[in-house]
């Protein structure tokens, strides 16, 4: 599966558009991570616990989007975008979406 944020894939041409492929991942923070994040917030710097949590959520959303695109018969997703939103005090959502397409080698 080819996934790109651009509308075109160099060397390929779109032969069929299958439609919108999207998926999300919602993760809640953990108490242990919150305590470490609070300490980091006091002294400054990256909050590595949350960075990892969001990275894991993003990967899961991409995996789910890919599975949906494959189920539609696509072999690529173009114009992929991400949205991150806080749902409640302790949970965040990452939404991944793009256009599921079928591509072939450009002759």
What's the CATH topology name? Translation Initiation Factor IF3
Order of strands in the sheet with most strands: 1-3-4-2
Count of separate structural domains? 1
Question: Roughly what fraction of the amino acids lie in strands?
Answer: 35-45%
Topology:
Elements: E1 2-3, E2 12-28, H1 31-43, H2 48-71, E3 76-88, E4 91-105
Parallel strand pairs: 1-3
Antiparallel strand pairs: 2-4, 3-4
Write a structural description.
The chain is of the alpha+beta class and 107 residues long. The chain has a single domain, classed as Hypothetical protein apc22750. Chain B (Translation Initiation Factor IF3), CATH 3.30.110.70. The protein contains 2 helices and 4 strands; from the N terminus they run E-E-H-H-E-E. Strands 1-3-4-2 form a 4-stranded mixed sheet. It is elongated and about 60 Å long.
Supply the key terms.
107 residues, Translation Initiation Factor IF3, 4 strands, 35% helix
Précis, in short:
This protein is an alpha+beta fold and 107 residues long. The protein has helices at residues 31-43, 48-71, and strands spanning 2-3, 12-28, 76-88, 91-105. Strands 1-3-4-2 form a 4-stranded mixed β-sheet.
């Amino acid at each position: 599966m080819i996934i790109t944020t651009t509308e075109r894939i160099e060397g390929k041409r779109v032969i069929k558009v299958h439609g919108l492929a999207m998926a999300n991942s919602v993760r809640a923070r953990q108490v242990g991570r919150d305590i470490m994040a609070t300490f980091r917030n006091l002294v400054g710097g990256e909050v590595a616990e949350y960075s990892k949590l969001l990275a894991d959520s993003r990967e899961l959303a991409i995996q789910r989007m890919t599975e949906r695109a494959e189920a539609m018969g696509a072999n690529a997703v173009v114009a992929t975008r991400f949205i991150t939103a806080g749902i409640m005090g302790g949970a965040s959502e990452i939404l991944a979406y793009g256009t599921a397409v079928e591509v072939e080698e450009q002759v």
